[in-house]
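[recover] target loaded
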């Protein structure tokens, strides 16, 4: 064998031994689980979790969900590059993650997050009958992001609706009584003729003060069926 090829082969093997088999997946701290109210049997339901990456060597948090009857189990983990990197910065990196549960039957569900670990969290989640029977053309606004007005309990919903034939009909705010306000910006179709015309909007919403906690989740339902989520800090 050519001497240069032999040296290259030896170096490649040594490199593989030095760097190991790659990052490991491990459970990570979940501090809060938010179970928004207002999901029904016709919605793709969502949970929201708030957690932290314990250092800079933990990356790419992910969730695995299993549903068995009225029990929902969620495992939250991240890739841990610590065994390969001795220079992990000891900083806590917070994250918020939305978990899609799909269509669920009516009833109350028990939710267990990171079962049998030091980071286990439990909550309950309710799916109801259809909230309302919307007329043809009713939908939620196409919210793209949320802003808070300084020193107030008002938030702004901003985005673009696909046509100017839709107008805001109502904004419903529903509390889960624990840690979440669900916001429903309901649109009404004004005409059968709806030409495509991206129309910007800003809607103001006053957040109630019925949940006495330092932080609550604002969970805004959108036209696509997904949600926009932000943490609202009570003052």
């Amino acid at each position: 064998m050519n001497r240069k090829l032999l040296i290259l082969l030896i170096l490649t093997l040594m490199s593989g031994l030095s760097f190991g088999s790659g990052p490991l997946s491990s459970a990570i701290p979940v501090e809060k689980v938010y179970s928004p109210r207002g999901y029904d049997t016709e919605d793709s339901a969502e949970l929201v979790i708030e957690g932290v990456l314990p250092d800079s060597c933990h990356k790419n948090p992910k969730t695995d969900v299993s549903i068995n009857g009225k029990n929902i189990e969620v495992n939250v983990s991240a890739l841990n590059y610590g065994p390969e990197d001795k220079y992990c910065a000891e900083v806590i990196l917070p994250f918020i993650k939305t978990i899609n549960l799909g269509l669920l039957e009516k009833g109350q569900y028990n939710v267990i997050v990171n079962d049998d670990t030091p980071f286990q969290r439990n909550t309950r989640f309710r799916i109801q009958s259809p909230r309302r029977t919307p007329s043809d053309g009713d939908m939620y606004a196409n919210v793209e992001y949320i802003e808070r007005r300084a020193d107030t309990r008002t938030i702004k919903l901003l985005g673009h609706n696909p046509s100017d034939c839709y107008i805001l009909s109502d904004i419903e705010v529903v509390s889960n009584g624990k840690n979440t306000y669900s916001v429903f910006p309901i649109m009404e179709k004004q005409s059968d003729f709806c030409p495509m015309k991206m129309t910007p909007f800003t809607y103001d919403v006053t957040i109630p003060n019925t949940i006495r906690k330092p932080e609550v989740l604002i969970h805004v339902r959108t036209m696509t069926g997904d949600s926009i989520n932000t943490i609202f800090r009570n003052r």
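[recover] notes: The chain has two domains: 24-127, 139-233.
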